[in-house]
């Protein structure tokens, strides 16, 4: 584990899921002098951050102020990063890997969405200075940039370019929520799965052989069905050329699958 209290951006590598995340919050509240801009930062981390669409148009000095007290964390899989109901102390940005956003009620749990690079979560709570409405955990080894919420709100008030970038990010998140609701409410489970497989193939240059990027249990929850119904949906898609072997899926008749799925840009296009 590497950590420097004097850095503008702290870098840590965590090798197990049992470390204490409260350490990060205690460090975030440490003495201001330990987090001044003139302190050293890893050049590769800084260069990577400056390339993010959220920051690339910001002046150098503004980026320095925004990143004061930030952390670039490298987490293993299955680490719970935040829990619903907690105060939104940080804005999280997925740099590498993947994060599952989920929620629980009594003995039930559901997957709300999957955050992939490069995207934020959960921006609305940060802007409103409100509790998180969802929990988050890593799906795989992931690099997460954590920016203190106070920095985000202060920079939005100070820098119009950054404020506009945050509004754009928030708008994109809202549209994803709407598309997700349309997908669940307007389509059958078989149609949702068919469209998911077609989207997955599209992101891999329409490759006929694809690997599911998440466990089937998580996929079922993401698509709003039980694991048993997901199995039945896969069985139904055999007639449309879908061959499943563990986590590998082959689309032998993509045209037939597309005719069944009837993709809609206002639901399925990530850029819409």
Structure description:
The chain is α+β, with helices and mostly antiparallel strands and 272 residues long. The radius of gyration is 20 Å and the shape is elongated. Helix 7 packs across helix 10 (254-261). The protein has helices at residues 22-28, 43-50, 60-66, 123-128, 149-158, 160-186, 189-203, 216-222, 227-236, 254-261, 265-268, and strands spanning 9-13, 70-75, 80-82, 90-96, 99-105, 108-115, 119-121, 135-138, 142-148, 209-211, 242-245, 248-251. It has two domains: 9-182, Jelly Rolls (Sandwich); 187-268, Orthogonal Bundle (Arc Repressor Mutant, subunit A). It contains eleven helices and twelve strands. The longest helix has 27 residues, at 160-186. A hairpin with a 2-residue loop joins strand 5 and strand 6 (108-115). The protein has a five-stranded mixed sheet with strand order 1-2-9-4-7. Strands 3-8-5-6 form a four-stranded antiparallel sheet. The model is unreliable at 1-8 and 26-41 (pLDDT under 50).
Secondary structure topology:
Blueprint: E1 9-13, H1 22-28, H2 43-50, H3 60-66, E2 70-75, E3 80-82, E4 90-96, E5 99-105, E6 108-115, E7 119-121, H4 123-128, E8 135-138, E9 142-148, H5 149-158, H6 160-186, H7 189-203, E10 209-211, H8 216-222, H9 227-236, E11 242-245, E12 248-251, H10 254-261, H11 265-268
Parallel strand pairs: 1-2
Antiparallel strand pairs: 2-9, 3-8, 4-7, 4-9, 5-6, 5-8, 10-12, 11-12
Helix pairs in contact: 5-6, 7-10
Keywords:
single chain; 272 residues; alpha+beta; Jelly Rolls; Arc Repressor Mutant, subunit A; 5-stranded mixed β-sheet; 11 helices; 12 strands; disordered N terminus
């Amino acid at each position: 584990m590497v950590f420097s209290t004097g850095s503008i951006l702290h870098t840590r590598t965590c090798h197990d899921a049992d470390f204490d995340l409260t350490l990060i919050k205690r460090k975030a509240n440490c003495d201001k002098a330990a987090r001044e801009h003139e302190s050293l930062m890893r050049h590769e981390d800084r260069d990577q951050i400056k390339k993010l669409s959220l920051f690339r148009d910001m002046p150098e000095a503004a980026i320095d102020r925004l990143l004061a007290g930030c952390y670039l964390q490298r987490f293993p899989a299955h680490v719970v990063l935040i829990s619903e109901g907690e105060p939104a102390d940080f804005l999280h940005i997925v740099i590498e890997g993947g994060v599952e956003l989920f929620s629980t009620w009594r003995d039930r749990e559901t997957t709300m969405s999957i955050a992939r690079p490069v995207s934020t979560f959960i921006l609305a709570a940060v802007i409103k200075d409100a509790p998180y409405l969802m929990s988050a955990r890593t799906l795989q080894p992931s690099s997460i940039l954590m920016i203190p919420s106070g920095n985000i709100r202060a920079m939005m008030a100070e820098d119009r370019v950054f404020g506009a970038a945050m509004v754009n990010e928030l708008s994109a998140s809202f549209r994803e929520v709407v598309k997700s609701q349309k997908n669940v409410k307007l389509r059958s489970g078989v149609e949702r799965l068919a469209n998911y497989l077609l989207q997955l193939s599209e992101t891999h240059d329409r490759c006929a052989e694809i690997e599911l990027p998440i466990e089937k249990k998580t996929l079922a929850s993401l698509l709003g069905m039980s694991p048993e119904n997901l199995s039945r949906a896969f069985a139904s898609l055999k007639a449309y050329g879908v061959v499943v072997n563990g986590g590998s899926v082959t689309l032998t008749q993509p045209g037939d699958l597309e005719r069944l799925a009837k993709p809609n840009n206002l639901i399925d296009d990530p850029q819409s």
